[in-house]
């Protein structure tokens, strides 16, 4: 099963947007996320609808942050993306007739729900400013500048 990397990709571009003095185009974000600009616009629409980013059309337009990173959590971004399924594991059969498989499903379902609740609780505790601070520390250790990072797939 292919992993859903939208959350990681969006967090990546949001941190770049925080560093940019001008709006960031969908094309530039598509390059960072290794995807197409139309995919970026579709993904960013949920964040715009929640008031986390804004978009401007025309020359000099693009996407910019509409809120402070300290007010935005991983959970906020996750929810704005439509709360994608966090785990790739699932049941072999959703409505099994076999009593053994019913017992297996019940045990797995409880574990999946507990793990998801813990993950979402942790997401709610992490503001994007913490990611930006971590980036700043990493940048200082590498003696680089904000433009000195790579976007290889």
UniProtKB/TrEMBL annotation:
InterPro entries: Tscrpt_reg_Rrf2 (IPR000944), WH-like_DNA-bd_sf (IPR036388), WH_DNA-bd_sf (IPR036390). GO terms for molecular function: DNA binding; DNA-binding transcription factor activity. GO terms for cellular component: cytosol. SUPFAM superfamilies: Winged helix' DNA-binding domain. The keyword Iron-sulfur does not apply. Pfam families: Rrf2 (PF02082). PROSITE patterns: HTH_RRF2_2. Keywords: DNA-binding. The keyword DNA-binding applies. This is DNA-binding IscR family transcriptional regulator.
